[in-house]
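Exam revision sheet. Question 4 asks you to relate a sequence to its structure. Input first:
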Amino acid sequence: MAKLKITQVRSTIDRKEPQKRTITALGLGKLHRSVVHNDTPQIRGMIRAVAHLVEVEEVD
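Answer key, structure tokens:
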């Protein structure tokens, strides 16, 4: 299964509460922190909700 490396590049200050919760649920919360998740529809949906705050790249 493919993996996605997700890196937070923008702050959640002045963002709506659902976006803050999504960042937390992804395991992020500080700038330039990265996490690796399996590429699932649930994770893709979370990424889509906060796409303006994160960078995503595929890893093997």
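Marking note for examiners. Residues 3 and 38 are 4 Å apart (CA to CA).
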